[in-house]
Amino acid sequence: MDFRTEFKPLTVQPQEIEEKSFQIITEELGEHPFTEEQYPVVQRVIHASADFDLGRSLVFHPDAVKAGIQAIRSGKIVVADVQMVQVGISKNRIEKFGGEVKVYISDKDVMEEAKRLNTTRAIISIRKAIKEAEGGIFAIGNAPTALLELIRLVKEGEAKPGLIIGMPVGFVSAAESKEELAKLDIPFITNIGRKGGSPVTVAALNAISLMAERQG
Amino acid sequence: MDFRTEFKPLTVQPQEIEEKSFQIITEELGEHPFTEEQYPVVQRVIHASADFDLGRSLVFHPDAVKAGIQAIRSGKIVVADVQMVQVGISKNRIEKFGGEVKVYISDKDVMEEAKRLNTTRAIISIRKAIKEAEGGIFAIGNAPTALLELIRLVKEGEAKPGLIIGMPVGFVSAAESKEELAKLDIPFITNIGRKGGSPVTVAALNAISLMAERQG
């Protein structure tokens, strides 16, 4: 293949860029309240958002990181609320332990059921997911309605996730849904406030799968 | 399909959530320097990030919005730098005018060439894209190296995009790449600083495609 333009060597390679970024983050973040096992998650969230306030707003259930590592190493399913989360997740580190990354929101039966019940596809996709993903990780970066539905199902004893990473972004219900998540007595990672989104949710999960791999 | 749990009517439907969000954004943003045609882009960027500072940091070439609308209505290709940008873009409003959304970064020939030249896939994917996408829209939300390469090709007269939406996020080269973009005398939308990312890049493009559709 002819790419027409001449090659000019890059001074900075992707691996170097990441290392340099992490160094800047550590320097600029300074003191923080996170544990040694939580810090890689915080670091990758800041890396994905360039937002220190967002990083500092993270809230961890005390068992969250351990539970996430355990779920990945046991080959549990990872459920993404939307495609943007699914495509961002590093699949190889999930699949090498036998797991897979699933997203249900565009499934035909989910769309039909949402229409029939006049509710959101996000909600119905969670009802479908909990049947397949007991003990799995739910990564919710976009839809507060999905997170609220999952919280409801946990409270009613119908869903038993291994870890919920819940960081939807937005002006309506997002902050409230995360406050509700932080009240649960099961492993969760979330943040306080309106900010959040797919890239930071992906970053948190990728940080955990990297720890899972390194324990091997 | 049996979803096992009873239906509970939602008080807030997706359309209502969006309208209420836009209302909050307009109220809280207050005075701003943007034109009437730029404002929908700013509004959707804030909606996607819950970050008013990021919204206020947007910089538009004076012809940017018009050029973007024109490109979409002429059925030009939209090039996404990464899959996370591609999956977020509302395809129907691109395709109804004959356009399509493409991403080259995982193409086999791009991967091979990047390896051969010891450079990033992002750079090689841009070299491939400019051949197919003359007059098209480049939506770059992740890779500063892709944006820098595109800027170089524009300066050398090898690339003639209709619009560049360039909002990579990060600590190394991201802010610098956007400063370079803002110096070009072709239509661009970018922002000042480290923040940015796939969702805000998608939001800017979706705002423009919505305007393109409404002009019809």
Automatic annotation (TrEMBL), chains A, B:
Tell me the Pfam families matching this sequence.
Answer: CbiC
Instruction: Name the Gene3D superfamilies on file.
Output: Cobalamin biosynthesis CobH/CbiC, precorrin-8X methylmutase (3.40.50.10230)
Q: This protein's superkingdom?
A: Bacteria
Q: Does the keyword Isomerase apply?
A: yes
Pathway where this protein functions: Cofactor biosynthesis; adenosylcobalamin biosynthesis
The UniProt keywords, alphabetically, are: Cobalamin biosynthesis, Isomerase
InterPro entries assigned to the protein according to its UniProt record, in alphabetical order: Cbl_synth_CobH/CbiC (IPR003722), CobH/CbiC_sf (IPR036588)
Please report the stretch or stretches of sequence annotated as the Cobalamin biosynthesis precorrin-8X methylmutase CobH/CbiC domain. 16-209
Query: What's the family?
Result: Belongs to the CobH/CbiC family.
Name the UniProt record assigns to this protein: Precorrin-8X methylmutase
